[in-house]
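Progress against Task 2.4 (sequence-to-structure conversion) is shown through the following example record, which the project officer requested during the mid-term review.
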Amino acid sequence: MSTVDGDMNLTGTGGNDPNRADQPGIYLDAALESTGTGNIILNGTGGQSSAQGYGVWVDTAGSVTATGSGTITIAGTGG
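Structure tokens generated for the chain above:
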């Protein structure tokens, strides 16, 4: 997903099943890119979990880049 001059704002919350281990707020396995003045903001809260309840999980295929003057803000709270 990409933007040039508009902001990209993604917010997510994981689930509340204590029997599942994979409940991130945001799971990213693709590219997010800003090429102009647009900012990228990721805000995630992980679900109730014993493991992998990350607020924001950028997997190996995921990336977040800004090649213009836009900023990147990543805020995550684990579950």
